[in-house]
Design a protein that fits this description.
Blueprint (H helix, E strand, L loop, with lengths): L1 H13 L4 H13 L3 H16 L3 H13 L3 H17 L8 H18 L3 H17 L3 H11 L34 E8 L2 E8 L3 E5 L5 E6 L5 E2 L3 E2 L6 H6 L4 E5 L2 E6 L4 E6 L2 E7 L1
Helix pairs in contact: 1-2, 2-3, 2-4, 3-4, 4-5, 4-6, 5-6, 6-7, 6-8, 7-8
Length: 278
């Protein structure tokens, strides 16, 4: 955590116009138990520069929780959730993950205070609002929190593959989908790899021994063990695999990451647009 704080502080000095760096630094201080510095970053640097948006309000509510200001924390989360529905002012994080994070922390605080029924009401409220707004991803996340102890899932029973191939497999020259392919060299730190693109939308990164070190599905009519297919709605992975461990944000878009399967599912416009193995 100390190294993270040092890196974020350096990044903040180098790119002072990047608001997310300030927030990540404040979160790092909270993880370190230093609520004083977290509050100082938000109130002393972030808000004067970027204004009092919902990102700042979330950090301050979490700060009050760590400081033991229970009643103020409850009111801060209530106000934040209400304002997010009426006047969205979040400019930093993707809207759906930010809304989920706010509800998650609000419910966690209520549970900590012994108010389990109110915590459940927080998730019911999110489910109702997301259903009304047509956000199937948030709706499924809220439902999974309400029924996480009884939810019936159909997880993958075998390792996820790209056209039947796994990470570490040697790439077979006799591979059936090779009828049309494009192969290009890629140099990484002096080592040569090969990027192989197949007509069916499968993509592979091969090392010098022709072993698969990275693989992803970007197009075509691909599916994951006949459970998740390209074009499925964004809540399909949640119905099948449950809540992801993380949500990743790359230049190419958002991914739902499932560490147990080494699988990240690409979401574009609330649809499954592909996946990669890690």
């Amino acid at each position: 955590i100390e190294k993270s704080i040092a890196y974020f502080e350096k990044a903040m000095r180098l790119t002072p116009e990047h608001p997310k760096t300030y927030l990540l630094l404040a979160f790092a201080y909270l993880l370190d138990g230093n609520s004083f510095m977290a509050r100082g970053i938000i109130q002393g640097k972030y808000q004067p520069k970027f204004g009092n948006d919902h990102s700042a309000a979330l950090v301050l509510a979490m700060t009050q929780a760590i400081e033991g200001k229970q009643e103020k924390t409850h009111l801060a989360f209530e106000q934040l959730i209400q304002e997010m529905q009426n006047h969205p002012k979040n400019r930093v994080f993707p809207a759906d993950i930010f809304i989920y994070t706010a509800h998650y922390n609000a419910a966690a605080h209520l549970t900590f205070m012994g108010q389990g029924e109110k915590a459940a009401h927080t998730w019911k409220y999110l489910a109702q609002e997301s259903k009304k707004n047509g956000n199937s991803y948030l709706f499924r996340l809220a439902l999974s929190q309400l029924s996480k102890h009884t939810q019936s899932l159909a997880p993958l029973k075998t390792a996820a593959t790209i056209s039947g191939l796994r990470l570490g497999d040697p790439f077979p020259e006799s591979f059936k989908p090779l009828s049309a392919k494009q192969q290009n060299p890629l140099w990484i730190e002096g080592e040569q790899f090969q990027v192989l693109r197949l007509e069916n939308g499968s993509r592979y990164l091969l090392d010098s021994h022709q072993k698969i070190v990275n693989a992803w599905q970007a197009a075509g009519e691909g599916h994951l063990n006949h459970k998740i297919a390209l074009g499925d709605t964004a809540d399909r992975p949640l119905k099948t695999l449950g809540i992801p461990n993380r949500r990743l944000h790359f230049i190419s878009g958002d991914y739902l990451a499932y560490d147990d399967y080494g699988l990240a599912i690409h979401i574009v416009y609330n649809k499954v647009a592909g996946w990669f193995l890690y």
